[in-house]
Amino acid sequence: GAGVSQSPSNKVTEKGKDVELRCDPISGHTALYWYRQSLGQGLEFLIYFQGNSAPDKSGLPSDRFSAERTGGSVSTLTIQRTQQEDSAVYLCASSAGPLTEAFFGQGTRLTVV
Amino acid sequence: AQSVTQPDIHITVSEGASLELRCNYSYGATPYLFWYVQSPGQGLQLLLKYFSGDTLVQGIKGFEAEFKRSQSSFNLRKPSVHWSDAAEYFCAVGANTGNQFYFGTGTSLTVIP
Questions:
Q1: Among A93, B11, B94, B104, which is least packed, fewest CB within 10 Å?
Q2: What is the DSSP-derived secondary structure letter of residue B22?
């Protein structure tokens, strides 16, 4: 597609449920990032994929969070046993390589009730 | 450790007035610097970037930024603000490992007629 696509755009879930957030990066982009944006906060780095290298998971806040990138393209961020503090906008970005311009999707707004 | 500080949480300017948004970074090597803009409900859009060379960089929408190594700053400027510039602005620094971008907490810009 022309840009980074994220789905769903909004997700409301009950506390304790698992959720999956999807990111379709720009075709050909080797780098993919997940960030979390909480109200009034900056962007919190979660995870980074670059080609076939092992992902940098250093930003994942707990073991309830995990992410995969299949075939070097689509990525899924999974949050298990959601908590209210997980409520935020989850942003995905892709770039043609390390430190080249990152293109962001419109985000998934997650609300845990 | 790398970090970005945007000291102004919120700025209000009159339409037609000049604008300067401050950004200070902490990074041990030559930084890769970015300014992004986020309109309500939208993803982040790159305004401009600095990698090397001329320290005054021009971006889209009439924005420019100046890299000042001695002050560890990368302030964003616009000579005449338009109502459509009202948005959230994020400064970011890229780690040379390419693993992530470090974002500031953002500056919210309000433009009054």
A1: B11
A2: -
Nearest Cα residue to A34 out of A26, A42, A23: A23
Looking at the complex, report in whole angstroms how far the Cα of residue A80 sits from the nearest Cα belonging to chain B: 24
Helix (H) or strand (E) holding B40: none
Interchain contact B88–A (C-beta under 8 A): no
Tokens 């990698």 locate to B51
pLDDT in tens, B36-77: 999 987 889 999 999 888 999 999 999 999 999 999 999 999
Alpha carbons A32 and B68: distance in angstroms, whole number: 30
Which of B36, B96, B100 is closest, CB to CB, to A33? B100
In angstroms, what CA-CA distances link A111 with A15, A82, A90?
Answer: 9, 10, 11
